[in-house]
Each structure stands twice: as structure tokens, then as C-alpha cells.
Fold each of these.
Amino acid sequence: MSGRRRAPEWVTSQGQYAGSVSRFLAFAIDAAVSAGLFSLGLAAASLVVQVVTGHSVHWTRANIAVAIIFVLWEFFYFGYSWAASGRTFGMAVLGVRVVRADGAALDPWRGVVRALVFPLSFLFLGLGFLGILVQREHRALHDLIAGSCVIYAWDARAARLRFLARDAEASVNASAPGPAVPPGS
Amino acid sequence: MADGRLGDGPGRRGFPRYPPPWMMFVLLSWPILGVVDPRDRLRNAGKRLTDPAEAMAQRVAERVIDLVVEVLDVNALMLRLDLNAVLGRVNLNDVLRRVDVKTLLDQIDVNDLMSRVDLDALMSRVDLDALMARVDVNELVQRIDVEGLVEQTDLGAVIARSSGGVAIEALDSARSQAVGMDQFIDRWVQRVLRRHHPGPAAPGGPDGRDPSPEGRVPSPDGHAPPLSPPGTAQ
């Protein structure tokens, strides 16, 4: 045993303000998932219309109705996720969570407000997101308006233990002698 | 001698030829008196008298003490003693500070001591609930080297088998990489903005580390995340 290794910094980051990369990756996953689900929904709707009416329907992005439905769907996706559990699917994957500015669990209405003002951060080439980089608490414009912030919420310590366990088992397997070879073979 | 001259022999005018006898005695005995103390004899004589007397006194004292101890009922005496009052007057901390515990423990044969102890009887008298109520389990757990435990015992294999999975491993890796990049970017931003004092690390109290009790957001597995300073949650 070669002494105890130093735990990396992220082991103790749980509960701290989440940084830009984690949040961006979470948003990217959410954007992909929500768009994928919307596409699936459209495809399902097309199938139903085709089965019922016998006419094939093709949805395009230029269709204003589709655009409106897409925007509403995005509001629902983000708003419901934040209001219900404080995190979306992408945030769950990256292990981050939206909480109140004082660290308490997010109120449902704050989740809805956050979803409503979320597009404001995209204005002026995404200037509202600059707060995630430069603001001391890594809060974007929609966070400041909704009184929320994003923190790391994944059990990093358990992950660290899993990593060590895998590492220890791998070293044991590597040091174990191989199967005995019968003589003469 | 009638004229006061010393001696009877011829000599210079005005000076005696021989010193008087008392001066002769002093002059001759002076070197001897420098070595021999004439009072030694007196002291020796006194010692010959006091030594037997002292020995006899000691024997008498020992005998008297034996007689007193035989007469005394120590158990009755101890029963009349208010040990709590006595112990209440003792500053145990002061006493313990003076005790060299290491030396004391070195002299104790623990095996012999433990062989005399009836552990069952002892444990039956212990109120484990009251004892455990006084134990700060959180502090105790903090002192456990869990990582060392996982690395050096079969517990690691158990954890690896129970939580093994490519998806979980990939998820842990992706999250840790993302957090590492977050911290890397954050350090550079702080450097570019020339901030000497970084902001609070976490939402909560004045220093960002003391959220309200209801503010402990549960982690994905349902446990409240430790909002402790770095280094204490190891």
C-alpha cells in the first residue's frame, strides 16, 4: 500500500455553487432531450393524424403553430422540472440542482418564474449568462430575477468511494496469480 | 624568670631564651588541633546513647501502630467515610495532570487485569442507551478513514460489485471532469478579474456555508449534502 492518496478537490464541492461547464453541459443535454421528446411527440401526432384521417402530415420548423407549441413545450419542460424537483434531466445527469439563493429548496413558483425569465438571459448574445462566469455566486440573469442559484448536489463522496473500490479491486485482480497450467500442456 | 624573661638560658638582651610552657603547649598542639576535633569524643559518646534510644523508639512506634491497626475496624471506618464529599474536594484534573499516564500504563499487565474482570457483569450494569446518547456519532464518523478502509479491506470489493456498472462509472467520471473544468475556469476568471477574495463557496449564511436548516437540499440519494468546508468531509 503506497500511502493514502489525496482526495481531489471536487470531492468536497457538494453544496457549493455550480460552475459554468457543468451548467452548460446540463443545458445542452436538456436542449437535446427536450428537442428529441418534442420531435417524438410530433412524430406520434403525425402518426395519429395519418391513422385517423388517412392523410400524411409533415411538420416543419417554419410552421408557426409548431414553433409556438415548441416554445410552450420548452417552458413546460424546464418549468415543471424546476418546480417539481429543482432540476431537469440534464441537471440530474451532471449532478447539479436549482435552489433558493439562501440555499433552501426551490419553491415551485420560483421554478416557474425561472422558466419564464430564462429566455431573457439569451438576449444580447447571451449576456445574461455572463453572470455564471463573473458573478461571485455564479448566478445568471434569470437566477437573479427568480432568486435562485445552482449548486452541486451529487454525492461526490460516494463516487470517490466507488472509484477507490474499483481501483482496489482492479489492483487485487492484477496481483492475483493466473490459473495453474497443467504440466506438459 | 622573675624579670619576666623567657627561659633560663643566655639570650639577647630583653628577649627570653625559651617560650613559656603554655606557649610551648599551644605551639606543639596547634597542628594536631587542626586535624583532630576534641569534641568528637563527646559526639561519639552522645551517639552511642541516642542510637539505641532511636531504634527503641521506632520499634515502640511500629508496635503501637500495629496495635492500633489491629484494633481498628477499617471496613467500619470506610463505611463512615463520605467518599463523595472527599472526592468532591479533590481537584481530579489537577491530579490527573500530574500523573504520567504512559509510565503508569506501561506498568500495568492488561492481560492479567482483563482476566480478572467479569465483562458480562460489567456490561450488564452499563446503560448503553444513555452512553450512546452522549456519543457524537457524526464526529466519530468524521474520524474514520473510510477511504483507507475501502482500500485495505474487502469492503472495497463489496462496494465495487454492488455499485459497479459502466453507466455509473461514466457518470462519476463525467461529473468529476465537469467539476474540475468548472474550478479551472473559475480560477482563471478570478485571476483575470484580479479578485483577491473569492465569493462564498455555497449559498447560506454570511460566509456562504451555513444555510438554514430547511435549506439542506437532499442529495440524489435522499441524504442532506454536507455543506462543510473543504477538507472536513473526507
Note: Chain B touches chain A through 61 residues (CB under 8 Å).
Amino acid sequence: MALSLTKKSDAAAVTVPPWHPNIRNASILPDTKVVRTAFFVNGFAIVLTVSLAMYLGIQEWKLLEVDKQINYWQKRIDADTKESAQDVALYQLFKAQEAKTNEVDNFIHSRPVVSEMLLRLGAITPKKIAFDSLDFREGSVSIKATIKGAPDRAAGDASGYEKLIKNDKELGPLFSEVNLLSMVTNQTSGRLQIEILCLYKKGVRKA
Amino acid sequence: MSNEELLIFVRKNVVAVSCAVLIIVICVAMYYRKDLLPDAEKVLADKTKQGELLAANKEDANQLKEQYAQLVSENDAIASRMIHVGQLAENMQYFYKIESETGTKLSDPHQGSAAAPPKGQKPNFVSVGFTVSAKGDYGQLLNLLRKLENGDHYSRINTLRLTPTGEFRGGLMQMNVGMDLLAVQSE
């Protein structure tokens, strides 16, 4: 007899008629399915609910914290408002007083101190140069002077004097231009007369 | 589906149904409260800014009272050095006093009109122009000039012309000064 290569199937078993009547009530028998679909459904529902509840809770907690901070700042604002308003009013008064001081300061420093310029000019001017006139105007200073000595050497002295004023550490920074305007020989004395024009720099605060 | 069937369905799926109801409640709550946090954060930012500003005001004004008092007393001192536009005699007196102190000879000191304030500005003080001519030696005139510049009143020299009067150097000189004194309007 040849061996069968197939295993007895359950179907084959079913075909075997039961040896006793099936009296089981399937609806009241315990569930033999290890994991039911309801577990996944419930699990998913619970996870989703908890997640949403947590999200809402976090948002509410944040809102609570923000409200606390708003209350904190509101209390500080309420406490500081009156004092701050007084300080602001006082500051306005302070500014008005400061404006007075600044006005005086600007007035004083709007022009150079002529006496100091005069002294400085006297200090740096060589002995062979004698002033004929000094004319301090609002935008310039005109220096008219006579130079002792022969006219040919005096011309060099005049040019040197112009440079001396231009490069002076005190007078130089005050002027934008220092120009030798004229050199004329006085026919009577034979001496060279010069005129130097110094233009003030604009916007320079005077000491 | 009848009510009975629905009840059975609920009883059978009590967890899932409860979760579904909760989810709906949470979603509704989230929907209605979604703007509260951003709005509150905006309010907080405004309050913080306002609070910090007030706090900064307080901090900045820490010594403001003392500084203000100091400034007021300094301005009182400044005010005492002002001339009054309308007090011509007193103003002239100032120049004659300097004349006698320096030994120079003043001729024709003259008070000009008060300078008009720049358009749109309302300054506290006005500058009043004066012209002064003086004769003296160089030292006397320099002394006069320094007293004018650093005297009792605030001044600025606008123009100055210094010329010798005689033919010989080292003699008398003539000084013409155009200057401003700072003044308050007379009440």
C-alpha cells in the first residue's frame, strides 16, 4: 500500500460525523481570541484622548502662567504709574532748566575768546612784525602789519608768518583758511605792509 | 438603529464611546480657547513693555530730584548774571565801572536792540548788542577786553578792531568792540 504524502486535514476531520451531539452555547462560552479588535480601538481612543487632554492641559497651564505674569506686571504698573508720572513731570521741568543752561553755554561758546587770540597772536608774532591793525569780524580775522627789514627778505618773513598762524596749535584749528591777501611796500618808510585774512572754520565750538 | 440598539452599542463599547465624547469636548474647548493664549501673550508683551518702561523711569529718576535742585540753583546763579533789556542806565553803568577799573577811556557806549529770536523758537534769554569804543595803551585795552569777556554778565565779542592812534608804536590805541550781552526781558 502506497503511503499518502498529505496530512489529514481538519476538513477531513469535519467530515467525520460527531460521536456525540454538539450542545455548546457559543454566545456564553469564554472568548478564546487572545487580542480582540476592541483592544486596539479602545487603546487608540484612549491614547488619542489622553494626548488631546494633555495638549489642552498644557495650553491651559501656559495660559494660567501667562495670566499670572500679566497680573504681576499689572500690579507693578499700578504701583509705579503714579511715581513714574511724577518723575516724568519732574523730568520736563529738568529739561526746561537744562535748556536755559544750554542756551547760556551755546551763547558763550558761539564766538572765540578774542582776548586769548590776541594774546596768542602777540606771543607767536616775530619781533620784526608790527601790527598796524587787528580786525576781528564775525567770520574772519584780518591782520594788517608792517615788516621791518629789506622788502625782499620781508616777503619771505610774511610768507613764514602766514604759515606760522596756519600751523599754530591754538590758532590753526580755529581757521579754515589763512591767506596772505596783500603785500605792499610803503613808499614813505620803504617797509613791507601785509594783510593776512584768516577765515573761521564753520561749526567749530569755541573754547 | 433604534435607541435600544444604540444603548447596547454604547454598553458594549463604553471605553471607545467615552473617549469619542471626550475628544469632541476637548476639540470644542480647544477651538473656543485657541485665541486665548496668543492674545494673553500679546497682552503680556504690552504689559511687560509698559512695566519695564515705568521701572526704567523710576530708576532713571533715582537722583533726578537732587539734580533738578542743583540745576535750579545753578540757573538762579545764571539769572543773577543777566542784564535786563529795559534797564539802560544799569547796563551802561556796567561799562563805566569797567572803564574806571581798567583806566581806559570809553567813548559812546551804545546799547542796541535785543536780537529777535529765531523763527519758531522761544528762547529763555535774548542777546542785546552793544558797541563800545575805548582808548588806552595795549595793556589797558587787553584788560578791558578780558573784563568784558569774563565780567559779571555773559558776553560774546562779535567784532573787534584794534588800531594805534598815534604814529609811534607803544602809544595809545583805539579799540572798537561790537558785542552781545545775554539778557532777560524786563517784566
Note: Strands of chain B lie at 83-84, 105-114, 126-136, 155-164, 173-184.
